[in-house]
Design a protein that fits this description.
By secondary structure, this protein is of the alpha/beta class. 35% of the residues lie in helices and 24% in strands. It is built from 14 helices and 18 strands. Strand 14 and strand 15 (231-238) form a beta hairpin. The chain starts with 17 loop residues before the first strand and ends in a 9-residue tail after the last helix.
């Protein structure tokens, strides 16, 4: 493996050298990459037993592509590019409504956006860190004690260690955020939908495409990569209240989803059956994180832990890559971590908030809430299939690049 170079950091050398990053999904390894490159001593702790592979495809768009290029990841990501060819919609009876290119719905740029499995992105991020960054798996932060000069950390394993900075990159339901800022509820914004994701055998002949069934307030989606791979299924529905009682009860989750999709049309019976049998069921709510500040003392948040955009925005990973790049750069540029944290937030917050807005402005395409919204969506799809565009695509594309990316080296 070719060692990473260590350019002289711009500005003052950082006084905070030992950094603990909690989370090894997307934002955590991206941050670790840049911090290591700037000469920090980085440890990444992850509660899972390893970096998770596979998974559904995610998009890297706009300015996030430039971050990936500056990391030297573009050859690996191009090789892993899924290249979905078509997004098809059917009505409640399973009859075709229209098929469009995915970019017509997402507002992305055909031929420029990268679509890769989440696990392939995680692998591309972590591979250059082998032998350079310490990874601690099967563990998590139990307590944090920031005494002003350092952060004293006790892990679930009982290990005690001290770091100059701690960064929470541990997702929507961040443990780091809970320990430092308190319970999630004040920062959590529920967008009114519940979803179940799972894999099932590809018995439908789908290849590098997605198909979506919709009724007001409910959608079912099948997403295919290669013909010899399992499909990713998603069942999404409107729910006025957060189903708290189902979160720790897989049987309650399955019962709730089954109840909301009783139809015998299209592939719904097979999808519900696949959901019932799946050993990888992922059940959660569609929600975002909104905070007044992303840092406190020597602890800061990045990625979904700070500003989850929700999967309806399609921008969670892209915003995470950008946030990690800026946070590391500002820590290298400023010797005072509080100045660095403030500069990072000043640059990234408007970008994150603009991409959060995509989830509420464009959600009716995938999950129309009313019959009127569904009819309007279907009319747009038919127009787009005939060669027109999807309303809002230009605004969506602008949000993907709504930050002037600094250069730190």
């Amino acid at each position: 493996m070719t060692p990473l170079s260590h350019p002289t950091p711009p500005g003052s050398s950082p006084t905070a050298r030992r950094v603990l990053v909690s989370g090894a999904s997307i934002a955590g390894p991206a941050l670790a990459y840049w911090l290591d490159r700037y000469g920090f001593d980085v440890t990444v702790v992850e509660k899972a037993p390893t970096v998770r592979g596979g998974g559904y495809a995610i998009d890297i768009r706009g300015v996030a592509r430039e971050v990936a290029a500056r990391m030297g990841m573009m050859p690996a990501l191009r090789a892993a590019h899924v290249n979905s060819r078509r997004l098809s919609f059917v009505d409640a009876a399973g009859e075709p409504v229209g098929s469009v290119q995915p970019e017509q719905v997402t507002g992305g740029s055909a031929g420029l956006d990268l679509e890769v499995r989440r696990g392939d992105l995680a692998t591309a991020l972590t591979a250059p860190l082998e032998g350079r960054v310490e990874f601690v798996f099967n563990d998590s932060i139990a307590t944090l004690d920031d005494d002003g000069d350092a952060v004293h950390v006790e892990f679930d394993s009982g290990t005690l260690r001290t770091f100059d900075l701690v960064i929470g990159a541990d997702g929507l339901h961040s443990n780091t955020r809970r320990l430092v800022f308190g319970p999630e509820e004040p920062f959590h914004r529920y967008l009114g939908h519940v979803f179940a994701g799972f894999t099932l055998p590809n018995e439908f002949g789908l290849v590098r495409e997605a198909a979506v069934w919709s009724e007001p307030g409910r959608s079912a989606a099948l997403y295919a990569h290669e013909p010899d791979e399992d499909l990713h299924g998603f069942l999404i529905f409107r729910n006025e209240d957060v189903p708290f009682t189902a979160f720790r009860n897989p049987e309650a989750q399955r019962a709730l989803v089954r109840e909301r999709f009783p139809e015998r049309s299209w592939h719904l019976p097979r999808m519900v059956e696949g959901m019932e049998k799946a050993d990888d069921l992922f059940f959660d709510i569609v929600s975002q994180i909104h905070m007044n500040t992303w840092s406190h003392g020597r602890v800061a948040l990045v990625g979904d832990a700070a500003h989850a955009t929700s999967f309806l925005s399609g921008q969670g990973s892209s915003v995470s890559l950008v946030g990690a790049y800026v946070l590391a750069g500002e820590l290298a540029r400023h010797s005072d971590h509080e100045v660095a944290f403030a500069a990072y937030e000043r640059l990234v917050r408007p970008f994150a908030e603009r991409n959060q807005a995509l989830a509420t402005s464009g959600g009716t395409v995938l999950i129309p809430g009313t019959r009127q919204e569904l009819d309007a969506r279907n009319a747009m799809l038919r127009e787009a299939a005939a060669g027109g565009g999807m309303e809002g695509g230009g605004a969506t594309h602008a949000a993907h690049s709504a930050i002037d990316l600094p250069r730190y080296e």
